[in-house]
Amino acid sequence: MRHLILFFLLATNIIYAQKNKTSENIPFNEKLEKLDKSQGLVNTFFGDDKLYFKIPKTVLGKDLLMVTRLKQIPGNYSPYTNAGSKTSEQMIHFVKRGNTIDLLQISTVNVANEEDPINLSVQQNNFNPILASFKIEDEDDKMITVEVTSFFNTDSPSFNIIGDYQKKEYKIGGVDKSRSRIDRVSAFPKNIEILHTLTYSVKEPPRGNSSNTFSFQVNHSIIELPEDKMKVRFVDSRVGWFSLRKYNFSSDALKADDYRIAKRWRLVPKDKEAYARGELVEPVKPIVYYLDPATPKKWVPYFIKGIEDWNSAFKKAGFKNAIIAKEAPTKEEDPDFNPEDIRYSTVRYVASTTRNAVGPSVADPRTGEIIESDIIWYHNHLRSYRNRYLLETGAANPKARTLNTPEEEIGEMMRRVISHEIGHAIGLPHNMKASSAYPVDSLRSGKFTQKMGIATTIMDYARYNYVAQPGDKNIRFIRQLGPYDDYAVEWGYRYYEDQTAEEVKTILEQFVDDKSTQKLYMFGGYNNDPDSQTENIGDNTIKASNYGLSNLKIVAKNLNDWTTENGQTYDDLEELYGEMLSVYRRYVYHVANNIGGVHETLLHKGQPGTPYQLVNREEQMDALAFLNENVFQTQYWLIDKGLVSNFSDEGTLERLININVNLLKRLTSSRSLNEMMNSNASLQGNGLSVHELLNQLTDDIIYQNETPDLAERELQKQMINHFEDLIEDDKLASEIKAYILNIQEDLKPYTRKLSKRKNGILKTHYLFLHHSLNDK
């Protein structure tokens, strides 16, 4: 019996060893062939929870772009992170180092001519980081095989899946490899797509997450960058354009010459001879956007129009049908279609409570060529436009006097938002200067607004015409593309066949020289220029804001009727009231920004004008008079008891006081006062001095109001306290502190005198002011 047992044990071991030996002897390539294979730029083999890349040696050292996007995210994760959000974009190389393949991140910021000796130093001082290193599993004359499983099953360097803020807020731990996996891999001739799931432990998850877990589905696109590089276009600061910064160490200038290249799609005419004759020509490869299948059908026509509206601007550059919108193909029509695939540009419709839309793009870091972009529309953005349409145009626009905004009206707004985001995606940044180009009273003309819109570009934040008054006829209330858009697209997309980038730069500089000093074609950002503000329209902020406030007072009187029907709660009324205060704040701040302001005109030497000039003193004094009438004196129409009593048990006076006090503190912050003193001392123009500003504010808020009401008394107290805070602020110039000390000394006998003359509440108020001044 013992011999029989030994025999069976020996036989079993021999059989197991033979099986194991047989498995080990299977050639590596035969093992690969048993996995799911996909051939393309890099051949991929996927199965048994393993992923292998078989890399052609011709791909080694090639310029590749790796783009990482989120395909699915946890609920309630982050308001501005969604399915489709890009988390990283980087140029990479696969490089062989001995028995490994290194994945390098390549920088293209610092450059030099290859034949220039300094190029060696540029390389030595810009050493490329190693993102991953893979052991070579197999190699032949043409291919090298590596396993990349671990790279995609962890939160590898440069993926940037979790932001620092979210990591701290939710106390997110590391990746749980047991709950992470590679889901799908597809290879194509010019790109590879890898879809995988990463799961993290979470100590403090958001509400509704009881699993203490976050899982993300992530898509990586690795695309071969074109060997035929697009000709770069050097940026002109007078034309707004998204760009990439470069430093040329081979420059003849006595420094590392920094310059910017524009981010543009590559549009090449099909018929170059016809194009040269001035005929409109289709591009070889148009810009194509696919609509998210999740887009509600009723909005699809408006999205398509918003995209293709830009064809009118591309005609100025000589192209027709340059940009095309399509509905996403079905699985039967295109089984390979994937919104995360970098070959497809999409407009994503995101089910989110976030009120926003964005238009990012992916560009070749060497040349600025835009390869792909994804417009993202957040569903709840409809709510923002519905509310503001009522508040800003309702007085003059009967169609806006409801929260059930007509479909054609909300569709038109969506169309223009999509156009705005497409503008970003073709290279255009915001141009806040554009909204100040048109005369204010022209915005009350139906003929003018229907033709010209309400600003010279769709790329401003001039969303609505709040200037038009009740009784004005045939008014356009919603923004549209304008003359600046035509001009900017012509600058960016006019095709030049034979000229070098430097020659094109010279041609375009002349083109801009001829136009950039005209208001229709001016560009400006967010500086201290009252003509470059968000949400404003018209060339005179005081006049425009007076019109806006006149309309807003009408809206306030009707807000209850326009927002709430019988049988409803007052929730919508409360929401719209809060947003009405924001609109009021915006109108008065448009005027306040004249005070201490500096007009900016982007010029090159030889053009007429001065780049920076002070806002005229008279205009600043007019702005102060406006603020005194519309801010520092209590605006009772904003706290109407019959309105506020419908939704608040606490009242809203404090919210109004906060607007007033914050505006005062903004005008007289250490930074604002220091900048105002410096600009007055060193810039051209006759501006308002700091001394005059402080005296005028004190006169308006205190001396000219001896019988202040509750809100005005609080403003006076806050002003006294703020002046003392300024005296204690080390950052405030001592010259300005002297002005404030003088004001305080003058106020002491004044408040003492009034405390003796007044009775009741006013007596206690002035006693408080007097003691506050003497206790400091």
Give a short summary of the structure.
This protein is an alpha+beta fold.
Q: What would you note in describing this structure?
A:
With 776 residues, the protein is α+β, with helices and mostly antiparallel strands. It has four domains: 1-34; 37-224, no CATH class; 272-518, Collagenase (Catalytic Domain) (3-Layer(aba) Sandwich), CATH 3.40.390; 640-775, no CATH class. Helix content is 38%, strand content 18%. Strands 1, 2, 3, 4, 5, 6, 8, 9, 10, 11, 12 and 13 form a twelve-stranded antiparallel β-sheet that branches. Strands 16, 17, 18, 19, 20 and 21 form a six-stranded mixed β-sheet that branches. A three-stranded mixed β-sheet has the order 7-14-15, with no helix packed on it. Strand 5 (86-97) and strand 6 (100-106) form a beta hairpin. Helix 18 (653-667) packs parallel to helix 21 and helix 21 (710-728) runs antiparallel to helix 22 (734-757). The longest helix has 24 residues, at 734-757. This is Zinc-dependent metalloprotease. Residues 27-72 form the DUF5118 domain. Residues 84-270 form the DUF5117 domain. Pfam families: DUF4953, DUF5117, DUF5118. Residues 404-706 form the EcxA zinc-binding domain.
